[in-house]
Amino acid sequence: MALAMHVHPLDKHLRVKRLPTIFCSGCGIGIALSAMLRALDKRISEGSVNPNKVLWVSGIGCSGRAVLYLNYDVAHVLHGRAIPFAIGAVLANPELKAVVLGGDGDIAAIGGNHLIHAAKRNFDMVVVMITNFIYAMTGGQVAPTTPYGVYTTTTPAGNPEYPLNVIKLVGALNANYVARASVTTPHLIEQYFYKALAMRGFRFIEVVATCPEMFGRHIGLRDSVEMFSELKKRVVYRHRPSLEEAMIDWEKGIVIGEFVERNNPSFIELLRGVKK
Ligand SMILES: Cc1ncc(C[n+]2csc(CCOP(=O)(O)OP(=O)(O)O)c2C)c(N)n1
User: Fold this and answer.
1) Residue 202 and residue 270: Cα distance in Å, rounded?
2) Does ligand 1 lie within 6 Å of residue 82's CB atom?
3) Nearest protein Cα to ligand 1, atom 2
4) DSSP bridge pairs for 177
5) Mutate which of 23, 33, 106, 214 for ligand 1 pocket (most atoms within 8 A of beta carbon)
6) How far apart are CA 253 and CA 4, in angstroms?
7) Which residue is closest in CA terms to ligand 1's atom 1?
8) Beta partners for 56?
């Protein structure tokens, strides 16, 4: 008897020949990506997003790697440079809907300056930053988001620094949308990404994610189930929290929700306004 071909409803968004992914078992990137694809699928079937105008851009890292599995125009560029690449693409063709996907290292460390200026300009793009608290691809080194006191391979006595709260940073600038979800709340990733896709200006979504191999295992969480349930315990949903409430602390908790929603003119609109 011939085996029935298994077709997943999201297969049309993927380069299925490239599967399986490089991701470890229990990695949160797949949860985040599938939630984003469900939102995109909805937008495409409603006719509010043209799939031929979607451009995914990523830098280097496990999270950055995710775009290589997508059946879209994608650009996998230098570490930290996804945002400036997307800026160039949108300036050349303002019809593009640019989505930047990357890790907390890629977006907030080596790419931090680009992030600041793109948010300050309210530049037309959606940025999804996967925060797994470390540099996963290179072996679990300290990242700007690593919580205080936590072991990483480069802070064996515990991280002496307090983490960078990227939600507060981007929210203090001119971004139109600033939200944080977690892979333990995939429905919120889907909801926020769905909303962000239809907005103008700079839209930033931080997705707090499990990394059982390079974060969890190093801090004593034995497997991916333990990593997932520990993260789930720490995540606190708030309805429309203020930026002041955007706590991201491994011991005290991680507040998720929609922190900022504005409708300010985007960079392309402002540019058209001054162009004679
Ligand atoms: C210019 C440059 N510097 C450093 C590296 C090494 N490197 C590769 S991935 C990475 C960080 C990955 O961390 P993150 O962006 O958080 O992504 P993750 O793997 O955790 O998803 C670094 C430092 C590089 N590839 N290029």
Assistant:
1) 13
2) no
3) 79
4) 203, 261
5) 106
6) 45
7) 79
8) 74, 99
Cα–Cα nearest to 192, from 114, 241, 259, 246: 259
CATH 2.40.30.90 applies to domain 25-265: no
- Candidates 76, 211, 224, 82; CA nearest to 135 is 211
pTM over 0.85: yes
Whether 125 lines ligand 1, by a CB cut-off of 6 Å, is: no
CB 168 within 8 A of CB 146: no
Is residue 74 within 6 Å of ligand 1 at its C-beta? no
Buried residues in 94-121 as b, exposed as e (16+ CB within 10 A): eebbbbbbbbbbbbbbbbbebbbebbeb
Rounded mean pLDDT for each run of 10 residues along the chain, 276 residues in total: 73 96 97 98 98 98 97 98 98 98 98 98 98 97 96 97 97 97 98 98 98 97 97 98 96 97 96 78
Ligand 1 within 6 A of CB of 48: no
Measured CA to CA in angstroms, residue 89 lies from 14, 49, 56 at distances of: 22, 17, 11
Closest residue by Cα to residue 218 from 158, 131, 129, 148: 158
| Closest atom of ligand 1 relative to the 130 alpha carbon | 21
Q: Are 227 and 26 in contact (CB under 8 A)?
A: yes
Dump pLDDT digits (tens) for 79-125. Answer: 999 999 999 999 999 999 999 999 999 999 999 999 999 999 999 99
- The answer, yes or no, to whether the previous bond of 20 is cis (omega within 30 of 0) is yes
Closest Cα to atom 9 of ligand 1: 61
CA-60 nearest atom, ligand 1: 9
The domain spans of the chain are: 25-265
